């Protein structure tokens, strides 16, 4: 866009602003703060609150205009300090306060309330309103997470605009008219949205509050640091706030590169799980037969090291397996990669269990999120942004509204399907055809294509994902790729997965080559002597609870974990890991941007950072990783070459977002961003208390002095090597009349240890269902609410849900059945294979 | 109460089909729901949302904005006494007081037999017959104590059944027209006479 | 009695029937337009006539049409949501001459090349809605509507949309929102005119019922004949709605500028004066949004510019008469209460200010006022409409909020003594 400048005056001083800028933004840039309530920089302006009125001289003389709504124009004369402006603003403020309750002392917003701030700064201090104020029943829970106090509401339209415009879920709207205008959900139906917490964050008063934070703390008691949400790898920037060594809440920071201040509820409320001490692993423990006992760190580490050592000695290094399916910090991932490669020297390593594609394709010509959203055509491949990278869904919606053309290639419709330009079905029998259709849909706009490549459908294995992506890249040689898998970016970045084994490799190290699926299967067969599980739940990786019971007889399971889970309950050795917010560090996100992790509270009990545990195990195994401090890990990473060459912490002192890697990709300047105090009052207010927000100084934990085992034999050569991309792609066998392909897709609230530990989110976990279009239902003789039996690799009973939206987007001849929701049971249908054929039987009610 | 009955549903779909954007049918469908049930029930709003492609909260937001759309059950006859300036100057508040006495209910109330709901309304554009009142949006005036009593009596006796249908039935004349000319056809025609 | 245009049929008992319509020149304007004239020629006649919009703002209809953005799809919306207190002329035209309305709307659609016409009628006009629907049905039946009207190449549909009870929907952008199935929130400006971005984002002309009801006559008799009536910018005739404390309230069609308010209120063929024992204390010349006039303003002619020059507006053409038995405090309160009830709630000053002013005035009326309330009232008015001047300045999106101050300030400034009696003695001097 050409930078056309216009010249105008603010209070008789000349200024220049880019054409198309909103007057209020131009005034902000000039350092003139006009008070406002309804304006939010990430939403369309509505000019409702009338607080930002300024005088503008136009052809018909001077008039009061809402600065949030009008664009700058050449020759415009703007007055922000005139008597008329002050009187109008004072008048609006008085009107807003007229019916506003005087309950600031018990209001969660007190201390960080824009209305309160305005009233203190510009209010008269005395009320002329002697009438009875408006009364409403309050507070009304509009969901498990959000409470509504209508008396405090100033009708700014922010929450309703968010729900409609940003989230695309107009579940709250105004009701009534005039003085009775109020916020309402439909007939007290829940505000059931993945994004509900945002409405509380952007509420300029205390009308919408989050249940987890209600009455928890006062803003002036909070301290905060900048951090990155780790619930998925999108990398949403957050302000992590705490009081008296307890995490109190998380707020979204406006990162231009990533989350535009939005968060999903799963991320926002993750602090409630961290604070649930009952379900946290606080101390190391060892299991002896059926009994588990807490032990000291040294005892636990010695046992772990002994198990590893014994396995290496007896069965070779490759009989030690390491697996992870969640997002660990970059430092922890790297330390474990180094431990596996250089010390244990095993190839049975996969730190990105969820990533089912050849990650080298993700790294060849990577796209940033913003590049993806401004592409000539964006191709979504096997990814469901809403359920996997929720805030990406919001960014995509906004981009589509602004004109982005999207082609979706999925086995199962997503919530974006109705608004994308082309939705193309991925089915085993028509892979080639699907790719052809994508190419046809792109037409001649091939210059600036970005592909978001994910691993959404579990029925769609790594080999298929890789093949589709490869085919697309062959046909679209210039296309950039954005990683669309929610977990595993750090593992890819440091080569801690067979899907990306060549990224960082210290000379002579062992390359990962056994996929998580193969590790799980091998462990059940007894192929391994020791299985190390890094903060993951084995039942999410394809094991059943019954499997876990027998697993211990065949292999020593070492579980490093933040939360209790089926895995920790059955593991021989359990080591407590720091939770989110308890350790300093960093991470890379889906676009390979380096982002900081803030430490805001002390680790619970004896929990430690994962990198430290790796360092201590290395020394017990008679080697050294050379990591005594976090800086040591970083120094190593900095010099490791490859993707992360040049990594460091220093840039975080200047900017919220770190740089993109490799550093040669630095296409967008990481300028410090002025935060609109009205957009994020909770952050601004805590910032004002002097918390170390931007700097996030590294507090150095250090490694306890380890003690070495007897120097053992050097690790043996690899025994078994399976390539991570799994099965060979072949044309599928034809389906029998009553057979279907199984599509198994994840949901945001699929059961997991951190969700189970979250008192505010656990209730959102729902049973998986067989999701059918009404037409499919008719064909199968299944109705909404029926129960059915699905027969695949295992047999599973499921409820049936008919989804009208599917009628529009599922091909009428589709031979795919969709199971919505990952649980140990639904995963057992697959048994880690791709394109399983299933049959369905109706269960007749008793 | 209920979603649209089969008969009402076909009328609803016909209404939706008239508009270039289905959401435009929201208010006509709310009137239709009132014709069926006397008011706009939650079930009807949810049904309307499905038919026009809005969320139920949006339909509620629209319906609750308008005075004629009742989200709670009302009497068979909703009597609205106008007290706005032109009627007030000619004795509207006296009529309203009489009405409360005659019906034995305050403004906003419904008689126990479910026959009458009393409202105080803004100008109904019947000022040359002030003070005026509407019964299910059928106009009467000028009114005084006596004529109001007689109006109520006639309503009770069913003498006005032809003139005043039960609350919710607004337009008894149905649209009789050929199918709507498709916008695309009009677009093509009009494209010719663009400058 | 002056020339009658829109009210020509009102003398007949059966004015609403098709037979009466056809027997009295019905369809002739439309036939002439679609069979003998090009659309621009129709528009030119309307421009020549200098037909001022009859909805309230008095904008030239021809100029409005000329601002229509040229796009393949354009809409015509007829605003029949007449709800301005004491205004009942559209009600009359809708109920008593629905065929004329449909004919006028079709002529307008032809002139601007509308893809679709929606007649948005106030929901409370149940009888009018039925009669207009009947007229539309009959128009289709005789090919005065639909495909190839009267054998011409012009095709258009008319839809009848009932409102649902919200004064604000008379504001044209609010009406469009309502027509899109939403709350009637007026749209924020810019864009200033639906002619640029209107219904469904397409260019849209919104014309008042009385405005288009003039079109059959204009097409038949020519714009010049219309312009020959009245004077200056105020051409043709207007249907004035006289109400309040006069002997003979009612609708009176008069040639513009040719009679004065005194004539209208006291004239034998019009209002026939007040009750013999009473005297005039004030009258409102153009709907309750307008500043009040007092006995000294009686000799102002009924013309748009003439009334504007005297500091008020002809607005919707409704004249409300108050005699000395009425209480100005009560009148001001009732008007303020109306606006408070009808505020859409979008803008803070109108939503909160309107409700506040309503409460203060009611308190004064009930004898609970304080002297400080009078300054407070004026200051609150000033915060809604800075300067309380005419035409009003505004701190709001639309003019509903700024319509509150004229009555309040007129009453407080002109009848201060009445307020003081309420406040100091707790009684109404007119009771």
Automatic annotation (TrEMBL), chain A:
Residues 84-123 form the 4Fe-4S His(Cys)3-ligated-type domain. It holds the Pfam family Molybdop_Fe4S4. Coiled coil: none annotated. The keyword Metal-binding applies. Binds 1 [2Fe-2S] cluster per subunit. It comes from the Bacteria. InterPro entries: 2Fe-2S_ferredoxin-like_sf, 2Fe-2S_ferredoxin-type, Mopterin_OxRdtase, Mopterin_OxRdtase_4Fe-4S_dom, NADH_UbQ_OxRdtase_75kDa_su_CS, NADH_UbQ_OxRdtase_ferredoxin, NADH_UbQ_OxRdtase_Gsu, NADH_UbQ_OxRdtase_Gsu_4Fe4S-bd. Residues 4-84 form the 2Fe-2S ferredoxin-type domain. It is an enzyme of class 7 (translocase). Residues 222-278 form the 4Fe-4S Mo/W bis-MGD-type domain. It catalyses: a quinone + NADH + 5 H(+)(in) = a quinol + NAD(+) + 4 H(+)(out). Its cofactor is [2Fe-2S] cluster; [4Fe-4S] cluster. Keywords: 2Fe-2S, 4Fe-4S, Iron, Iron-sulfur, Metal-binding, NAD, Quinone, Translocase. Its EC number is 7.1.1.-. NDH-1 shuttles electrons from NADH, via FMN and iron-sulfur (Fe-S) centers, to quinones in the respiratory chain. Couples the redox reaction to proton translocation (for every two electrons transferred, four hydrogen ions are translocated across the cytoplasmic membrane), and thus conserves the redox energy in a proton gradient. Belongs to the complex I 75 kDa subunit family. This is NADH-quinone oxidoreductase.
From TrEMBL, chain B:
Keywords: 2Fe-2S, Iron, Iron-sulfur, Metal-binding. Its cofactor is [2Fe-2S] cluster. It comes from the Bacteria. Gene3D superfamilies: Glutaredoxin, NADH-quinone oxidoreductase subunit E. Belongs to the complex I 24 kDa subunit family. This is NADH-quinone oxidoreductase subunit NuoE. The lineage of its organism: Bacteria, Bacillati, Actinomycetota, Acidimicrobiia, Acidimicrobiales.
């Amino acid at each position: 866009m050409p930078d056309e400048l216009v010249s105008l005056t603010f209070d008789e001083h000349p200024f220049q602003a880019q054409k198309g800028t909103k007057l209020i933004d131009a005034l902000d840039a000039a350092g003139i703060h006009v008070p406002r309530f309804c304006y939010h920089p990430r939403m369309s302006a509505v000019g409702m609150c009338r607080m930002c009125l300024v005088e503008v001289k136009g052809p018909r003389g001077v008039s009061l205009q809402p600065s949030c709504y009008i664009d700058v124009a050449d020759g415009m004369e703007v007055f922000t300090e005139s008597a008329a402006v002050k009187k109008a603003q004072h008048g609006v403020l008085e009107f807003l306060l007229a019916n506003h309750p005087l309950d600031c002392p018990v209001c969660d917003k007190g201390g960080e309330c824009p209305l309160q701030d305005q009233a203190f700064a510009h209010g008269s201090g005395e009320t002329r309103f002697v009438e009875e104020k408006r009364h409403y029943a309050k507070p009304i829970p509009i969901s498990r997470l959000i409470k509504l106090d209508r008396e405090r509401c100033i009708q700014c339209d922010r929450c309703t605009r968010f729900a409609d415009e940003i989230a695309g879920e107009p579940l709250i709207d105004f009701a009534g008219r005039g003085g009775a205008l109020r916020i309402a959900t439909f007939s007290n139906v829940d505000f059931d949205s993945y994004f509900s917490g945002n409405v509380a964050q952007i509420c300029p008063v205390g009308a919408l509050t989050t249940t987890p934070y209600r009455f928890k703390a006062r803003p002036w008691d909070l301290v905060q640091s900048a951090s990155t949400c780790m619930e998925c790898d999108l990398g949403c920037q957050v302000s992590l706030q705490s009081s008296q060594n307890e995490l109190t809440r998380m707020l979204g920071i406006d990162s231009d590169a990533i989350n535009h201040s939005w968060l999903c509820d799963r991320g926002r409320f993750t602090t409630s799980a961290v604070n649930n001490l009952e379900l946290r692993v606080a101390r190391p423990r060892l299991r002896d037969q059926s009994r588990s006992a807490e032990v000291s760190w040294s005892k636990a580490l010695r046992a772990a090291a002994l198990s590893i050592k014994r396995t290496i000695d007896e069965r070779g290094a490759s009989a030690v397996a390491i697996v992870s399916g969640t997002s660990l910090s970059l430092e922890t991932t790297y330390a474990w990669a180094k431990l596996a490669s250089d010390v244990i020297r095993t190839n049975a390593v996969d730190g990105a269990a969820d990533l089912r594609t050849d990650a080298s394709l993700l790294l060849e010509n990577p796209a940033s999120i913003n590049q993806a959203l401004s592409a000539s055509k964006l191709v979504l491949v096997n990814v469901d942004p809403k359920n996997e990278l929720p805030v990406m869904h919001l960014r995509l919606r906004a981009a589509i509204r602004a004109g982005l053309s999207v082609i979706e290639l999925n086995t199962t419709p997503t919530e974006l399907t109705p608004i994308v330009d082309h939705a193309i079905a991925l089915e085993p029998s028509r892979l080639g055809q699907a790719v052809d259709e994508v190419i046809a849909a792109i037409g001649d706009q091939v210059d600036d294509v970005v592909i978001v490549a994910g691993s959404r459908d579990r029925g769609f294995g790594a080999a298929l994902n890789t093949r589709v992506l490869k085919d697309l890249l062959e046909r679209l040689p210039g296309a950039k790729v954005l990683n669309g898998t929610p977990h595993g970016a750090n593992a890819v970045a440091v080569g801690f997965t067979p899907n990306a084994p060549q990224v960082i490799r210290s000379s002579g190290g062992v390359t990962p080559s056994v996929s998580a699926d193969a590790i799980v299967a091998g462990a059940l067969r007894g192929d391994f002597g020791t299985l190390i599980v890094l903060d993951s739940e084995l039942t999410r990786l394809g094991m059943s609870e019954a499997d876990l019971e027998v697993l211990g007889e065949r292999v020593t399971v070492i579980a490093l974990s933040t939360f209790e889970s089926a895995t920790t309950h059955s593991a021989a050795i359990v080591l407590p890991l720091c939770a989110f917010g308890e350790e300093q560090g960093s991470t890379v996100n889906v676009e390979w941007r380096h982002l900081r992790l803030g430490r805001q509270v002390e680790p619970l009990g004896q929990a430690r950072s994962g990198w430290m545990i790796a360092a201590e195990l290395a020394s017990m195994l008679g080697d050294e990783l050379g990591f005594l401090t976090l800086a040591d890990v970083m120094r190593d990473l900095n010099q490791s070459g490859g993707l992360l060459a040049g990594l460091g912490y220093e840039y975080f002192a200047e900017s919220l977002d770190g740089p993109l890697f490799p550093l040669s990709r630095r296409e967008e300047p990481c300028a410090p961003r002025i935060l609109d105090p009205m957009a994020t009052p909770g952050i601004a207010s805590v910032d004002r208390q002097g918390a170390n927000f931007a700097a996030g100084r590294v507090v150095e934990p250090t490694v306890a002095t380890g003690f070495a085992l007897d120097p053992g034999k050097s690790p043996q050569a690899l025994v078994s090597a399976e390539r991570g991309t799994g099965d060979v792609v072949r044309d599928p066998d034809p389906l029998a009349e009553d057979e279907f392909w199984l599509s198994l897709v994840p949901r945001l609230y699929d059961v997991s240890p951190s969700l189970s530990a979250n008192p505010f989110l656990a209730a959102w976990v729902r049973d998986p269902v067989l999701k059918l279009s009404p037409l499919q239902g008719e064909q199968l003789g299944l109705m909404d609410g029926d129960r059915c039996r699905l027969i695949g690799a295992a047999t599973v009973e499921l409820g049936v849900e008919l989804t009208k939206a599917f009628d529009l987007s599922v091909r009428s001849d589709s031979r795919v059945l969709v199971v919505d929701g990952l649980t140990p049971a639904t995963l057992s249908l697959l048994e880690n294979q791709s394109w399983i054929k299933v049959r369905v039987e109706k269960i007749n009610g008793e | 109460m209920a979603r649209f009955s089969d008969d009402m549903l076909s009328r609803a779909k016909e209404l939706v089909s008239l508009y270039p954007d289905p959401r435009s049918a929201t208010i006509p469908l709310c009137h239709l729901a009132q014709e069926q049930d006397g008011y706009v029930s939650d079930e009807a709003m949810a049904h309307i949302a499905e038919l026009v492609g809005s969320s139920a909260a949006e339909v509620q937001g629209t319906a609750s904005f308008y005075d004629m759309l009742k989200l709670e059950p009302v009497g068979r006859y909703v009597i609205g006494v106008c007290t706005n300036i032109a009627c007030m100057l000619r004795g509207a508040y006296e009529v309203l007081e009489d009405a409360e006495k005659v019906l034995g209910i305050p403004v906003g109330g419904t008689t126990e037999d479910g026959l009458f709901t009393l409202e105080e309304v803004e100008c109904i554009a019947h000022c040359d017959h002030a003070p005026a009142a509407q019964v299910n949006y059928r106009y009467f005036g000028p009114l005084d104590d006596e004529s109001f009593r007689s109006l109520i009596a006639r309503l009770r006796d069913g003498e006005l059944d032809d003139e005043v249908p039960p609350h919710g039935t607004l337009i008894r004349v149905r649209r009789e027209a050929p199918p709507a000319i498709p916008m695309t056809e009009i677009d093509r025609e009009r494209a010719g006479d663009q400058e | 009695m002056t020339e009658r245009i829109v009210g020509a049929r009102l003398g007949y008992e059966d004015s609403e029937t098709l037979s009466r319509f056809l027997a009295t020149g019905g369809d002739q304007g439309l036939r002439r337009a679609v069979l003998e004239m090009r659309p621009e020629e129709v528009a030119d006649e309307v421009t020549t006539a200098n037909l001022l919009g009859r909805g309230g703002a008095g904008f030239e209809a021809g100029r409005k049409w000329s601002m229509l953005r040229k796009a393949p799809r354009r809409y015509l919306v007829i605003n029949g949501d007449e709800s301005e207190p004491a205004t009942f002329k559209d009600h009359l035209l809708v109920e008593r001459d629905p065929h004329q309305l449909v004919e006028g709307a079709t002529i307008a659609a032809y002139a601007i090349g509308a893809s679709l016409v929606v007649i948005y009628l106030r929901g409370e006009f149940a009888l009018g809605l039925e009669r207009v629907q009947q007229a539309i049905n009959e128009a289709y039946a005789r090919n005065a509507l639909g495909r190839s009207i009267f054998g011409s190449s012009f095709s258009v549909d008319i839809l009848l949309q009932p409102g649902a009870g919200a004064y604000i929907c008379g504001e044209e952008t609010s009406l469009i929102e309502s027509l899109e199935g939403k709350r009637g929130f007026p749209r924020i400006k810019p864009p200033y005119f639906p002619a640029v971005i209107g219904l469904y984002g397409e260019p849209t002309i919104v014309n008042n019922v009385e405005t288009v009801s003039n079109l059959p006559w204009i097409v038949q008799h020519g714009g010049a004949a219309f312009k020959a009536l009245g004077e200056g910018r105020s051409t043709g005739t207007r249907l004035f709605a006289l109400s309040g404390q006069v002997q003979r309230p009612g609708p009176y069609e008069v040639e513009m500028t040719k009679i004065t308010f005194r004539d209208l209120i006291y004239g034998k063929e019009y209002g026939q004066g007040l009750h013999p024992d009473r005297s005039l204390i004030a009258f409102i010349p153009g709907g309750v949004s307008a500043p009040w006039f007092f006995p000294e303003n009686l000799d102002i002619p009924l013309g748009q510019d003439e009334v504007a020059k005297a500091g008020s507006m002809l607005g919707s053409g409704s004249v409300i008469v108050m005699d000395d038995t009425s209480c100005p405090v009560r009148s001001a309160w009732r008007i303020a209460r109306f606006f408070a009830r009808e505020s859409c709630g979008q803008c803070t000053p109108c939503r909160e200010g309107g409700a506040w002013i309503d409460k203060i005035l009611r308190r004064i009326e009930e004898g609970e006022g304080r002297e400080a309330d009078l300054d407070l009232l004026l200051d609150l008015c000033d915060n809604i409409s800075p300067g309380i001047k005419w035409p009003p300045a505004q701190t709001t999106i639309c003019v509903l909020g700024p319509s509150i101050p004229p009555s309040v300030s007129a009453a407080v400034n002109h009848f201060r003594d009445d307020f003081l009696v309420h406040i100091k003695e707790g009684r109404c001097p007119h009771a």
